[in-house]
Design goal:
By secondary structure, the chain is α+β, with helices and mostly antiparallel strands. It is built from 2 helices and 8 strands, in the order E-E-E-E-E-H-E-E-E-H. It has helices at residues 51-63, 125-136; strands at 2-3, 7-16, 22-26, 38-39, 42-44, 71-80, 84-94, 109-113. The strands form 2 sheets. Strands 1, 2, 5, 6 and 7 form a 5-stranded mixed β-sheet that branches. A 3-stranded antiparallel β-sheet has the order 4-3-8. A hairpin with a 3-residue loop joins strand 1 (2-3) and strand 2.
Length: 145
């Protein structure tokens, strides 16, 4: 599925734990896009799939987690030097899980990160783009910083 013509859609999920820390993936050296960077679980929206369906699929594939209700947190235009302009659909969910409940299905590791510390990590371009909106969202409101 594409958003307005030929601009590809991506979907990602911000999973917050009880502390309001965010589940992040440390990418390994293999991806063409943003190797060795930190980002949120997510990926391309496949043909015939809605961004929300892609978010659910990617969450399951990359983390082993499932969530009933994903809350849309915005759509962000990301102009990446490798893949060009794409739309990143951000969804959020709070889950009562910990690092031990997460299966790292892709990348080097998948762990919960203090949202105050995340900007000091080498973030993917998409994560850098959506981070201010994510940290201002209700998903992280009231959590430890």
């Amino acid at each position: 599925m594409t958003h307005s013509g030929s601009v590809p859609d991506f979907a990602c999920v911000a999973v917050a734990d009880a502390r309001r820390w965010v589940l992040m993936q440390e990418r390994d050296e293999h991806p063409v896009i943003d190797p060795e960077c930190w980002g949120l679980p997510g990926g391309s929206v496949e043909p015939g799939e809605s961004p929300e369906q892609a978010a659910h699929r990617e969450l399951d594939e990359e983390t082993g987690l499932r969530a009933e209700d994903l809350v849309p947190l915005g759509v962000f235009a990301v102009d990446h030097p490798v893949v060009g302009l794409h739309h990143c659909h951000l969804y959020g969910v709070r889950l009562d899980v910990s690092d031990e409940d997460v299966v790292c299905g892709e990348g080097r590791r998948m762990v919960f990160v203090d949202p105050g510390a995340a900007p000091s990590l080498p973030l993917t371009l998409a994560a850098r783009t959506l981070w201010p909106s994510l940290t201002a969202s209700e998903l992280l409101a009231g959590g430890a910083r």
